[in-house]
Specification:
93 residues, mainly beta, three-stranded antiparallel sheet
Length: 93
């Protein structure tokens, strides 16, 4: 089955940045005296696409055991992993 992406109620769609092949990274807070204290994770998806390009499509694969996998047009899979600091992150590889 081929699906274009999860479609929101608006005209925007969720797409994988660069067609996949990226690993999310955690950026810890860097709180200096006169700096904003912001931390978080790098982005693997964006939700502001208004047109679907060929490299932005996902394929939903039935793995046969009531589980499914998401594969990008580039052949990468969306996965969840823990980094060395035990943060749960996403990867598209």
């Amino acid at each position: 089955m081929n699906f274009s992406k999860v479609k929101e109620e608006s005209v925007h769609t969720a797409t994988a940045l660069g067609g996949g092949g990226q690993v999310q990274k955690y950026h810890p807070q860097d709180c200096g005296m006169f700096e904003v204290c912001i931390g978080g994770c790098s982005t693997l998806f964006h939700t502001d696409a208004t047109q679907i390009q060929g490299w932005e499509k996902f394929r939903v694969i039935d793995q046969g055991n009531c589980t499914y996998a998401n594969q990008t047009a580039g052949g990468f899979f969306v996965e969840i992993y823990k980094d060395l600091s035990a943060y749960t992150l996403l990867a598209i590889r």
